[in-house]
Design brief:
- The chain is of the alpha+beta class.
- It folds into 2 domains: 86 residues, no CATH class; 36 residues.
- The protein has a two-stranded antiparallel sheet with strand order 1-2.
- Strand 1 and strand 2 form a beta hairpin.
């Protein structure tokens, strides 16, 4: 019986996503919100609005953060935590390729290398495509 309730709930959610202008982006927004909620509640030690003996800190509002994805820019409402702070794992970690590209561009700038001509332009143009 519980499995049928779960299936009905999933069908209802998918139907709501399909009615959105961009269903994949709407699913990603929902997923990021749920991941942040679960991760922040684990850090605090209790769900928002609930009291618990295991609570280590408290929620203190939200802050807006942009997350650029291939599906578009998401505006995340990241929960604030009073002690210790909270940054979602998917916002804090950058891909190694992005970090490598940024360090390459920074080093080129420091050394005065032109990014418009020479090997640097070939590298940046190949990374764009």
């Amino acid at each position: 019986m519980a499995q049928r309730d779960y299936k009905a709930m999933l069908e209802k959610m998918l139907t709501e996503f399909l009615l959105e202008e961009d269903p994949l982006k709407a699913m990603l927004e929902w997923l990021t919100e749920e991941l942040m909620r679960v991760e922040a509640e684990a850090k605090v030690g209790a769900p928002k609005g609930k009291h618990s003996q295991e609570r280590t800190t408290h929620f203190s509002g939200y802050r807006v953060r942009r997350l650029h994805t291939r599906l578009g820019t998401l505006y995340l409402m990241v929960p604030k935590v009073r002690k210790g702070g909270y940054i979602p794992f998917f916002v804090a970690e950058k891909k190694r390729s992005e970090v490598a590209l940024m360090s390459l561009v920074q080093e080129a700038f420091i050394n005065g290398v032109s990014t418009r001509t020479g090997p640097m332009s070939m590298l940046t143009s190949s990374l764009r495509s």
